[in-house]
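Support reply, case 0932

Customer input (verbatim):
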Amino acid sequence: MNSPAIAEAPAFNSEMRAAALACLMEKDAANKARNVHALARAWQLGKVQLDPSSALVAAANCPGRPDRPVLISPLEVKRRSMRTVEGRAALIHALAHIEFNAVNLALDAVWRFCGMPREYYAEWLGVAAEEATHFELLGAHLGTMGFSYGDFPGHDSLWEMSAKTANDVLARMALVPRTLEARGLDATPAVRGKLAQAGDVAGAAILDIILRDEIGHVAIGNRWYNWLCQQKGLEPIATYAALAMKFRAPILRGPFNIDARRAAGFSELELAELSSHAVRKR
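Our regenerated output:
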């Protein structure tokens, strides 16, 4: 899919992290996606500078999001039959909501944490742009089914972990890309299978794109998590366990997509522990 029309760079603050915060605060979902694409393009063209040392402050209503979907507890989300158009649309909507939150998470990683290397900010801005594309693909597909983003409720679990780790970049890298987003690597093949079985070939194809890109996103999280551990003299596996306990991260449950996790940069020791964990849970 071609990227949407690129806005002119002067619409942005000339500093990348401040511009990312402005994108994060945009309430309209479609505008947010367009603005992220425009910022990423402006950065690639050298029209945006980077100040990694500035300490930025977000408004109290961060992140910006539309009035709909209505946010409810994950326990209140209804299961719908894949045999109906509405049921399949509800699933596509749930995926679109995940991708909308993923855009916000990537933008938050850009603006919030100062003092990181230039490559860190460039990579997370690239992630935000890819997540915006995923959101657009799913939103367009939802439109072919007669629905729009906001027509079904959603939940806020992804952003809740972002709020918990707002003051700790090491915890953020450990528990958002390496935990929550890595769960998507495990879950996506089964969801894709459901869509394909229901005859939704287009939806299944979108999930193929998302899985491919998400492997790269989790790899970026792994890279910066391990870099931070090295900078601080920390052992990555023990540190992850401590952070997961401290911040009450979701308990990892199989089945695990070992091949995708390996491609995303998880160590063989971590993969072996996951595999033994899955066996113990049977």
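We compared this against your earlier run and they match. Two observations from our side: The chain is about 65% helix and 0% strand. The domain at 9-50+82-281 is CATH 1.20.1260 (Ferritin). Please reopen the case if you see a mismatch on your end.
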